[in-house]
Write a structure and sequence with these properties.
Helix content: 40-55%
Strand content: 15-25%
Largest sheet: 5 strands, mixed
Number of strands: 5
Structural class: alpha+beta
């Protein structure tokens, strides 16, 4: 009987792990109520069109990779701004945004609308494609 329970637990854990892995890094469009600009305690600069709000934790290795990628992306693309929040320092922000995993990146339009969210390390090309209309002013 004990072996059946162990096998069942392993099967469930494997299925959950595969489901999380399949979602990791994929861009999902969303509509949320909270404004990332206010949660990040920043005011958009005149040229800012999109805020990439990254929720991270200090022990998270993918968070460092995500931070480096988003910082580079914001430096290369006019209109993008990247802000990183440590969920240990700001648990209320993670709670308000319903973030259960780090890294999670949420893109907000200048007017505060949530545009998309990515759990895990974002896929650069997919992220840029999803934000293109907002960055070019067509959104």
């Amino acid at each position: 009987m004990g072996a059946i329970v162990v096998v069942a637990v392993l099967v469930v854990a494997t299925v959950v792990g595969l489901a999380l892995r399949a979602r990791s890094g994929k861009v999902r469009t969303t509509t949320g109520a909270a404004s990332g600009w206010s949660l990040a305690h920043v005011t958009p600069e005149p040229d800012d069109r999109v805020l990439l709000l990254q929720l991270s934790s200090p022990i998270c290795t993918p968070c460092r990779q995500t931070a480096a990628q988003l910082t580079e992306l914001a430096a290369q693309r006019p209109g993008l701004r990247h802000v990183e929040i440590d969920v240990g320092d700001a648990p209320a922000a993670a709670s308000e945004l319903h973030v259960m995993r780090t890294p999670t990146t949420i893109a907000f339009a200048r007017d505060g609308r949530e545009l998309l969210r990515v759990s895990g390390v974002p896929r650069r090309r997919d992220l840029l494609e999803a934000l293109d209309s907002e960055l070019t002013g067509a959104g």
